[in-house]
Amino acid sequence: MAAPRLIPCLDVENGRVVKGIRFQNLRDAGDPVTQASMYQDQGADEIVILDVSATLEGRGHAVETTSSVRQVLSIPLTVGGGVRKVEDALALLEAGADKVAVNTAAVERPGLISQLAKRFGSQCTVLAVDAARQDNDGWEVVVRGGRTRTGQDVVRWIQSAATRGAGEILLTSWDRDGTRSGYDVELIEAVAAAVDIPVIASGGADNADHLERALESGATAVLIASILHDGVTTVDSLKKELLLNGIEVRP
Length: 251
Known about the structure:
- The structure is a single chain.
- This protein has 11 helices and 12 strands.
- Helix 9 packs across helix 11 (about 235-245).
- The protein has one domain (about 5-245): Aldolase class I (TIM Barrel).
- About 35% of the residues lie in helices and about 25% in strands.
- The chain has helices spanning about 30-40, 55, 65-70, 85-95, 105-110, 110-120, 155-165, 185-195, 210-215, 225-230, 235-245; strands at about 5-15, 15-20, 25-30, 45-50, 75-80, 100, 125-135, 140-145, 150-155, 170-175, 200, 220-225.
- The protein is α/β, with parallel strands linked by helices.
């Protein structure tokens, strides 16, 4: 089994990195090109860029940002936000993305996943899922930056997406996003047990122990944002702590 990946996430709005709590009250967190280059130097295994306002504003995807970041990046790059059709994904891939993530558009038109997988391969097709805990039990899919609750069960949706050709799941706990209270390990366990494709855990990281718990719960990679943007820690520091705890990491 391959060593887990540590993946800094750059939420981008109007060409700037932003960060908030549960996708709200976004604050400026820097320049995406500068941040991506710095995290690569720290030992990041991949970078994820998510245009957090593209769907809400009904506009296109961050092609210019993707192209600028690719010029300083040699590690894999996943880009999402505003991808509504195959042509949107093609534009991002041509701009330098290695993988494309879809979220809202896939919920509205599940056939988009199959179209992307057929055209570009499952290895390029990432399903991003924002999951919110339900009062009764389980989690429901939320879209449009968490503003719209669909009532759709997260685990069943991910299973359906996997059969349609999604090659990887970017799983974000809406409840934990930006809170630094730890990943939702129950959510990770439920999804990892339901599909046999890689699961990237996202939402709530504060320290290496949180990363370790997510990986032990079935995630094959962990997304990190706030603690990097705020200078609390670095990718290489997190890797060193994981190694000390017996978790293999990539050089």
